[in-house]
């Protein structure tokens, strides 16, 4: 492809269309299961379907699990992976370039990006 376009490739578009159709089919099947009385479904030969109670209970449980994950489990994982606030890794790391380590070779050299010492930052911020 010589020209870059935001359109998906033909293979991806086929998968997307199939997923679109399966999504709508799933919604229609869910609504039929939730709203049509079981006696009508039994006349069609569909006798082994879950109770309509689960049409409301299952999405409620899934939403509740999502809320618990987003507000409790995910932040807890992040807190466990982050270093404590009094650790030096929150201030600097092994890749830090200090201003003292830079040696200018020419008069018009542009200095590289470097880390400011935390004492200087505190002096400027909090005077």
From TrEMBL:
An annotated GO BP: GPI anchor biosynthetic process
Pfam families on file: PIG-P (PF08510)
Membrane topology, as annotated: Multi-pass membrane protein
Compartments, record wording: Membrane
GO cellular component terms attached to this protein's record: endoplasmic reticulum; membrane
Transmembrane residue ranges: 12-33, 53-74
The keyword Transmembrane belongs to this UniProt entry's keyword annotation: yes
Entry's family note: Belongs to the PIGP family.
Function: Part of the complex catalyzing the transfer of N-acetylglucosamine from UDP-N-acetylglucosamine to phosphatidylinositol, the first step of GPI biosynthesis.
Protein name: Phosphatidylinositol N-acetylglucosaminyltransferase subunit P
């Amino acid at each position: 492809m010589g020209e870059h376009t935001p359109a998906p490739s033909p293979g991806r578009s086929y998968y997307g269309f199939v997923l679109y159709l399966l999504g709508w089919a799933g919604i229609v099947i869910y609504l039929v299961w939730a709203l049509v009385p079981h006696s009508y479904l039994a006349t069609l030969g569909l006798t082994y379907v879950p109770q309509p109670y689960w049409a409301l209970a299952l999405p409620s449980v899934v939403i509740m699990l999502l809320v618990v994950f987003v507000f409790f489990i995910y932040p807890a994982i992040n807190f466990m992976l982050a270093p404590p606030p009094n650790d030096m890794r929150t201030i600097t790391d092994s890749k830090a370039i200090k201003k003292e380590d830079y040696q200018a070779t020419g008069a018009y050299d542009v200095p590289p990006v470097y880390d400011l010492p935390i004492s200087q930052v505190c002096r400027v911020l909090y005077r």
